[in-house]
Amino acid sequence: xxxxxxxxxxxxxxxxxxxxxxxxxxxxxxxxxxxxxxxxxxxxxxxxxxxxxxxxxxxxxxxxxxxxxxxxxxxxxxxxxxxxxxxxxxxxxxxxxxxxxxxxxxxxxxxxxxxxxxxxxxxxxxxxxxxxxxxxxxxxxxxxxxxxxxxxxxxxxxxxxxxxxxxxxxxxxxxxxxxxxxxxxxxxxxxxxxxxxxxxxxxxxxxxxxxxxxxxxxxxxxxxxxxxxxxxxxxxxxxxxxxxxxxxxxxxxxxxxxxxxxxxxxxxxxxxxxxxxxxxxxxxxxxxxxxxxxxxxxxxxxxxxxxxxxxxxxxxxxxxxxxxxxxxxxxxxxxxxxxxxxxxxxxxxxxxxxxxxxxxxxxxxxxxxxxxxxxxxxxxxxxxxxxxxxxxxxxxxx
Length: 398
Ligand SMILES: Cc1cc2nc3c(=O)[nH]c(=O)nc-3n(C[C@H](O)[C@H](O)[C@H](O)COP(=O)(O)OP(=O)(O)OC[C@H]3O[C@@H](n4cnc5c(N)ncnc54)[C@H](O)[C@@H]3O)c2cc1C
Description:
- It is globular and about 65 Å long.
- It is of the alpha/beta class.
- The chain has helices at 13-23, 50-56, 60-65, 102-112, 160-165, 232-243, 250-256, 286-289, 298-315, 319-336, 353-365, 369-379, 394-397, and strands spanning 4-8, 27-32, 43-45, 72-76, 82-87, 99-101, 118-121, 125-130, 135-139, 144-147, 149-152, 171-184, 193-198, 202-208, 213-221, 264-271, 277-278, 281-283.
- It is built from 13 helices and 18 strands.
- The protein has a seven-stranded mixed beta sheet with strand order 5-4-13-14-15-12-16, sandwiched between helices. Strands 7-2-1-11-18-17 form a six-stranded mixed beta sheet.
- Helix content is 32%, strand content 25%.
- The structure holds flavin-adenine dinucleotide.
């Protein structure tokens, strides 16, 4: 009998884990809370050993083909004048071999996942009952099913995590919220990442994509680290509140929200769970150790962690030994990559026009430490050499 696994979450970590398990003959069921794949988000880059994982999955060339073509970063003022720019080709440390829209990456991975993987949308886990020999799962529609293993790949705000490792002080709030949504491209848009600092403790971005639309992001300081559940309309109200009277493209973004049907919005937490598994259930990706977009490493860690977790499960008959090997081989690197540069993210936000001026002056000087720190916000690890040595598995080469 093939082993059965339930994976909650079809972001980056879920389908990557599914790929490796299904390839090894496991019977994989994936569930997603949303009614379809959530393909939103901006550019993300794959660095370090994640490049080798996608190479092993034979999707690296396809990913490279879908490069966004972004030309670099421009700091802009309220009239959309550029106050400083950092072209990709002139900034060695910012050059990324693999840069792709988050949704395109998910599309490529899902296309590579073997056809016998089952997807169920609009579903989440209501209760987990680990019986020792298997896990009984109750879904939110009341149906019950048993699996050998349950994997939580449901992101930073994972609900499944709590069912597995309980409540703990593993959430570290960064003091700010982020959002991602897609808006129509206008003639006046360009192919740069435009960064606008709002003097009320907020930052707005517009970034080009390769699909004829623009990727918007509104980020802001907030004391609220634990909001109630937000509907799509609640999210629009919150974003409009931040955009109201903010200048630059704020009014356009506010209007464009009328037509937006998926928004990622919420407080940014680093997730620092010390234990990634309990019995037959385990965490992967942001659910286990989210570094947040401020490190540029979330997707890289999700891809490497998924590869290791899945292949340790295939390599070991005993799931406890597999989970231990997964943590032993990967946790220290994941922990290290959560380290934020000093002053990040506070340094990037301004609560007065004077501070906006200081940021612009720092950016215009270019060599200042301010810019180095901003650069680190989206740089991740772009070195050619891998810092992490990917484990190899005999069953992969067979
Ligand atoms: C819509 C969206 C846009 C994003 N945009 C960016 C970006 O622009 N830049 C960036 O650096 N990072 C972004 N991220 C985060 C980034 O994708 C992750 O940091 C990283 O890729 C790790 O991926 P993950 O698969 O662990 O988590 P995620 O990519 O967050 O995927 C988690 C998935 O689980 C689903 N889910 C949530 N709760 C449940 C549940 N209870 N049951 C079942 N499924 C559930 C979610 O809908 C989502 O599809 C975004 C995430 C999302 C969801």
